[in-house]
Design goal:
13 strands, alpha/beta, 12 helices, 367 residues, three-stranded parallel beta sheet, four-stranded mixed beta sheet, Aspartate Aminotransferase, domain 1
Length: 367
């Protein structure tokens, strides 16, 4: 059983992928070729914003967004400790200070009730994360941020394609960022990412930052990075965009079926989708107090599973200078100790879902 089945997806669109790659090989514009602009237009139309800037990775997307907002050394940027390290890493790379707030116990996303207390006179941005396929409570987070005049950067690396009260992820704040890492709901065959905004000035600045701060050839008004997306990867994402809405619906169907199969098992907590949210189930993640033993049981039955973010960021050596300690973020630590993501992809068969559920029921001795 595949944890994330990319092979079936490739088989579905293999002729189109081969043709797209061949077109790039034929025109030979491997950097900033015509597929980049075409992809940016399609993505911006899909999300419903004016500007999309394709870039080299989801990490670069977040970094470029912070750079465009002029985040300086000593500034504070609020985010969560339950996420991939990129979210906080980019803050530290600019010598700014990550400030963590705990997550909600049901959605595992930023808890808006704790946000106000984390804001100081040095807060310059807030980065909520849409974990496992659904957005954070962006309406409340945006409202709190607006009261303090603080920009919000949406980390939608795992929830691209999701909606929050009818609006698409990456359109929910001043800047939205996503990743096209192969395992993401919309992925390429390498690294890739994109940034979204309705702000003309910020979009222009990020386009400069993407190419070493260059405005016109040999003129670099800004310090930038090499943040360009490869044309080959853009060509691949363009083809995957054609089936992406269908795949999002397939993911939701599989998530609903998992809920039916697993929600009655005592000792197992299934995902909760917040009011107003439509998820894309980047992962289907359960909580179990016996997580490690459940992992071993599933592995012995040939069922792969992954404990994502089992080491919260506030306890990582990279952030030891922030001074956080164990028990500072109890919900994060609770979730990190119990989370287990089960196989999930648009092409997961009903038989495989039944097998996963059967093995979990065996583990809990559910009849």
């Amino acid at each position: 059983m595949e944890f994330i089945d990319l092979k079936t997806q490739l088989n579905r669109i293999r002729p189109r992928i081969d043709a797209a790659i061949a077109r790039v090989l034929d025109h030979g514009q491997y950097i900033m070729g015509p597929e980049i602009g075409e992809l940016e237009n399609k993505l911006s139309a899909y999300v419903g914003v004016k500007h999309c800037i394709a870039c080299a990775s989801g990490t670069d997307a977040l970094l470029m967004a912070l750079m465009a907002l002029d985040i300086d050394p000593g500034d504070e940027v609020i985010t969560v400790p339950y996420t991939w390290i990129s979210t906080a890493e980019v803050i530290s790379l600019l010598r700014a200070k990550p400030v963590f707030v705990d997550i909600q116990p049901d959605t595992f996303n930023m808890n808006p009730d704790l946000l106000e207390a984390a804001i100081t006179s040095r807060t310059r941005a807030i980065i909520p994360v849409g974990i496992y396929g659904q957005t954070a409570d962006m309406n409340r987070i945006n409202a709190i941020a607006a009261q303090h005049g603080i920009p919000v950067i949406e980390d939608a690396a795992q929830c691209f394609g999701a909606t929050h009260y009818g609006k698409k992820a990456c359109s929910l704040s001043l800047v939205g960022c996503t990743s096209f890492f192969p395992s993401k709901p919309l992925g390429c065959y390498g690294d890739g990412g994109a940034i979204f905004t309705d702000n003309d000035d910020i979009a222009g600045k990020m386009r400069q930052i993407r190419i070493h701060g260059q405005k016109v050839k040999h003129q670099h008004p800004l310090v930038g990075i090499n943040g360009r997306m490869d044309t080959l990867q853009a060509a691949i994402v363009l083809e995957k965009m054609e089936i992406f809405p269908d795949e999002c619906e397939l993911r939701r169907q599989i998530g609903r079926q998992y809920n039916k199969l697993l929600s009655s098992i005592p000792g197992l907590t299934v995902p909760v989708i917040a009011e107003g949210n439509e998820t894309v189930y980047a992962q289907y993640t359960v909580l179990s107090a016996q997580r490690d033993k459940l992992f071993q049981h599933l592995a012995s039955a040939g069922v792969p599973s992954v404990a994502y973010y089992a080491g919260p960021l506030h306890l990582q050596g990279a952030f030891k200078d922030l001074g956080y300690r164990r028990d500072d973020f109890p919900v994060t630590e609770y979730v990190a100790g119990q989370c287990l993501s089960l196989p999930m992809s648009p092409y997961m068969s009903g038989d495989d879902q039944e097998l996963v559920a059967s093995e979990i029921k065996k583990f809990y001795a559910v009849r």
